[in-house]
Each structure stands twice: as structure tokens, then as C-alpha cells.
Amino acid sequence: MRSAKTSLWKLPLVLPLLSLVSYTLADTCSCGYAQDANVIWTDSIETDFTAVRDIETSQDWAVQKWTSARNVSEAPYGRLREARNVVANPATGGNGAVGKDGSPAGLQLFVRSVLEDDNALVPVGEIFSKREDIQYGSFRAGIQASSVNGTVGAFFWYRNATQEIDMELLSAETTATNSTLNMVLQSWQSLWAGSDASKTAGFKKDALPFIADDAVHEYRFDWTPTSVSFYVDSNHLWTNTLPEFIPASPGYIVLNHWSNGNSGWSRGPPKEDAKMTVTYVKAYFNSTDSERQRDFVSACKKPSSDNVCQVTPQTGPPTCRKPGGCEDGTITVSSAATTGKVLGASLISIVGVAAVWLVVT
């Protein structure tokens, strides 16, 4: 649920050029999304997967259907991305947290135990955002990790092999008493290290204060021109400010669940079908698309209490108890943009043309 706020602020709006696709603008937040009373993001993707009945018709997400061929120098198996491994499980009945199959509601990403193509490929599930113009922002996902050993569950932003911001849950690192999170910044340094970020300063592994496959938790990363910060349930885990690890180009969001049998990472493949559940994604960001930028300027003639939304932090593990999905199928938890005060907020500066100054009264 989004609502607007009141305040007096100035923001420098710096607009780069890159035309990709057409966009529509939400009237209630047409002058952006304020984060932590300091930053304004112009755009958003908000998806409540507990209310999605057919992911193939999504305006925001594309189910992936392609193959990463086996390369035995890297791993024993390749990956086969298939639509059957991306399954909508919308909430039904009297409890919005329970899906139609009786398990937790949300988008299910499967890694299958039966291999394909003469045992060369592991069937996996993956979705990409249709927006590829995403540069800087705050990105949040509600995820319940797999309990089956031998998979990787990942939520990340991607440009290429040297520009990637990644949060990965390895089921082999989850036990009855312990879970860990891998925070990964792919860079030229990691590429030179054989695409192994763990050999660079762009990698950190932290123990989590919960068991990742027991319940849904919010995984979040914030990306600015000078830093990348990682959070779980709004608890700060790590910030990297080293320039060589901070991406500077537009890209897209990815959620996937996979295995390739690599003994040093995913392990597996799993001995039984493994499932990761995604309940929501909320992304607040800037666009590098020139058409989208023109729409923003056109819609935001006079910022006011009716058209600036504040993004509030998640204060604990997210919950959803409403039949048919939370908030009538819009957004699920407290870190949606909600009523609040914006003081001195400014749009994150990105490479582009001259700034335009707006004043909210």
C-alpha cells in the first residue's frame, strides 16, 4: 500500500539517455519514492507473488527458457531453464500465507532432481525483470530458501560478468541450527580470479540469525554511485565502498534457483526436487531510459503531499495473513511506500545531462 507525504525539499534531477521501452506512471507516486529521508528514486517495481496466478502474463517479469551448456572445466552439469520450474502458487482460502497447493503462497522456483539431455543438464527456475534500465536503487525480496541440499537461491541485479550485485543462499550451508548468506559483488577482479568473487574484497559471508528455509525473510541491497549495502529484515550486514566493486551501468533484476554440481559452490544436484518460494519483490530505483525520464518530468510538475511516497524499512520477518494475497494483491509488508515525512531528500545523481531543480511546498 502506497501513500504520499508532506515536506519541503529540493531535489537535483539528473537524467541520462537510453531508450528501451514505454512505461506508465503511478499517479500517487509520480514524483518518486523517498528512502530513509535522504534519497529519492524515480521508479518502482512492486510485485506481490502471493496474488500472481499466471507468471507468464506478468508485465514486470519474464520467465527464462534457455540453456547454459555443460562446461566440465567449471562444473559437472549445465543448466536448463524451463517454464515448468517457475510455478505460481497464489494464496487461497482463509489464510493468505497458504497457497493453492497447501504450501506457503508465492512464486515457486524449482531445481529438479531428474536430469535432462543424457544427464548433462539440471532443470532450474529463473525470472528476469523486463526493465533493463535500472541504475541505482533499493531492492527487496521476500524469500523462503530451499531445505533440500545442493542448490543456490539467488536474488541479484545484473549487467554483465563484471557488474553484478548478488545475494545467494546455498542450501548446503543451511542446517538445523545454522544458515549463511553470501554477498557477492562481481567485478574485473573477480573475473581475473576465474569468476570467483570470494578471492576478492567484493565478497562477504555472514551467519544469519535464523534458519533460512524455516520462513520468509526480506533480503535487500541498496546501491548508490559510491556504495552497495546489504540487509536482512532491515538489519545491516555489510557495506562495500571500494570503487572497483560498485557498478555504474544500467541492468536488470534476477531471481533464480539453480545447481550445476560445482563441489565448491552449489554442490548437488539435489536428490529430490528442491523449491525456493518468493513472496514479493519491491524495487525502487532510477531509470536510464530517456522516455521514462521525460514521463517523470512531465508528471512531476509540482511535487506535493499527493505525489511523493516514502519507503519505510522492514522491521522484522514479513508476514501475510489475508485471503487472496496481501493488500488486495498489491504489496505485502511494511517496507512498501507508506505515509511519512521526507526531509531534505534528493535524487541520487547519475551520469547525464544538466540537473533540473524542483521545490516541494
From TrEMBL:
Record carries keyword Signal = yes
Question: Which UniProt keywords are given for this protein, alphabetically ordered?
Answer: Signal
Q: Which PROSITE patterns match?
A: GH16_2
The GH16 domain is annotated at 39-289
Keyword Signal in the entry? The reply is yes
| InterPro entries the record matches | Beta-glucanase-like, ConA-like_dom_sf
TM spans (from-to): none
Q: What PANTHER family is this protein classified in?
A: GH16 DOMAIN-CONTAINING PROTEIN
Q: What is this protein called?
A: GH16 domain-containing protein
Give the source species. Coniosporium apollinis
Q: Which lineage?
A: Eukaryota, Fungi, Dikarya, Ascomycota, Pezizomycotina
